[in-house]
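Review session, final week

We close the course with one last complete record, chosen because it touches almost every idea we covered. It is SsRNA-specific RNase YbeY (16S rRNA maturation enzyme), a protein from Mucilaginibacter gotjawali with 58 residues. Go through it on your own first, then we will talk.
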Amino acid sequence: MGDLNQFKRSKERITEVLSHLMHKNIKDEKTSMFIADLQNSINKLESKIEEFKRQKAS
């Protein structure tokens, strides 16, 4: 499993891109799909971060 800081940095970068797309006035199917993919990626990273923390705690 990767480094906790690496997971956090990846999540921060993806969150920045997501925020940028959410504030743009472009509303098309491709952008909406990309936004959904980014949100899914953030959820997966949050899950991995929690998993990593649990493994470190035990």
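Two points worth writing down before the exam:
The two ends are 15 Å apart (CA to CA).
The CA atoms of residues 13 and 48 lie 16 Å apart.
Good luck, everyone.
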